């Protein structure tokens, strides 16, 4: 599905550089399956990721709808029990250059790598999918003072603005200042009913053309050996991605 901008989600310019740091086995999975792995936010190591701001949770005790087996969902319960498990997230870093801290935090060995892309490429790689992908910058700070989203009053009526970010998604783009070094752009999707439930995450197929669109180049780990470079090149040739450039780390 072509990328559609949404009011409430900001992005850097299309030419801005974005990065995805990972160990080699994760990259091999991308090459093998031509998919990108979206993770449930309640499986992240940060227990506060996507958690409702305090004011929201207090006010979201309004009854929303019936539970399948009796009882009622409040808005807060619906978000935590139905939205979080079905709307996984894919995280990228936007920065002009490689980050030593990101290498340290998100890779575990010297055969790791980082994918270099741009905001434009990231948006366009999803064009062949039938899934709506929401992409935006994470907002870092203290979000305790955020006001009530007023789901029923504003967003469930006939006058709801269709292009505006659904309030269910707002908490997924909020993080504490402790994580500001990540400079994160994240994509979120809703997993269709026929593909539910998902335990940890969901592989979204973008096809080999989507992979080629996404990846501008691959940068090796700063301490990678020549043998590890050969191993990576062999792997990419094996899966038909021989034209994607492999470069040394700028931190080497």
Describe it.
This protein has 252 residues and is of the alpha+beta class. It has one domain. Helices cover 25% and strands 21% of the residues. It contains 8 helices and 13 strands. It has helices at residues 24-33, 54-59, 75-83, 100-106, 119-124, 151-155, 207-214, 226-238; strands at 17-22, 35-39, 63-66, 72-74, 89-94, 113-118, 134-137, 139-140, 174-175, 184-188, 201-205, 217-220, 246-247. The strands form 4 sheets. Strands 7-10-5-1-6-12-13 form a 7-stranded mixed beta sheet, sandwiched between helices. Strands 2-11 form a two-stranded antiparallel sheet. Strands 3-4 form a two-stranded antiparallel sheet. Strand 3 and strand 4 (72-74) form a beta hairpin. Mean pLDDT is 90; it is low at 151-157.
Report the sheet-strand fraction: 15-25%
Q: Identify low-pLDDT runs.
A: 151-157
Helix content, binned percent = 25-40%
Q: Please identify the structural class as seen in this structure.
A: alpha+beta
**Given the structure, what is the number of helices?**
8
Distance between the termini: 38 Å
Largest sheet: 7 strands, mixed
Overall spatial form: globular
Topology as H/E string? EHEHEEHEHEHEEHEEEHEHE
By DSSP, the count of extended strands is 13
Tally of individual domains = 1
The strand line-up of the biggest sheet is 7-10-5-1-6-12-13
Task: Tell me the Rg in angstroms.
Answer: 19 Å
Mean pLDDT: 90
């Amino acid at each position: 599905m072509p990328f559609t901008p949404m009011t409430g989600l900001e992005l850097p310019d299309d030419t801005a550089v974005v990065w995805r740091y990972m160990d080699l086995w994760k990259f091999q999975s991308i090459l093998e399956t031509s998919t990108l792995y979206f993770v449930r936010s309640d499986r992240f190591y940060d227990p506060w990721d996507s958690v409702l701001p305090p004011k929201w949770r207090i006010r979201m005790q309004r009854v929303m709808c019936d539970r399948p087996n009796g009882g009622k969902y409040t808005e807060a319960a619906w978000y935590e029990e139905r939205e979080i498990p079905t709307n996984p997230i894919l995280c990228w870093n936007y920065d002009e250059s490689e980050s030593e801290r990101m290498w340290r935090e998100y890779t575990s060995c010297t055969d790791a790598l980082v994918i270099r892309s741009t905001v434009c490429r990231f948006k366009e790689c999803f064009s062949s999918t039938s899934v709506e992908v929401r992409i935006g910058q994470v907002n870092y700070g203290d979000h305790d003072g955020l006001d009530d989203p007023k789901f029923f009053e504003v967003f469930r009526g006939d006058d709801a603005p269709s292009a505006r970010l659904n309030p269910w998604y707002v908490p997924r783009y909020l993080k504490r200042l402790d994580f500001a070094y990540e400079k994160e752009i994240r994509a979120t999707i809703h997993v269709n009913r026929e593909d539910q439930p998902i335990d940890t995450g969901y592989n979204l197929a973008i096809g080999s053309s989507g992979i080629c669109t996404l990846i501008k180049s691959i940068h090796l780990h700063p301490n990678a050996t020549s043998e590890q470079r050969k191993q990576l090149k062999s792997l990419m040739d094996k899966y038909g991605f021989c034209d994607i450039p492999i470069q040394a780390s700028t931190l080497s």
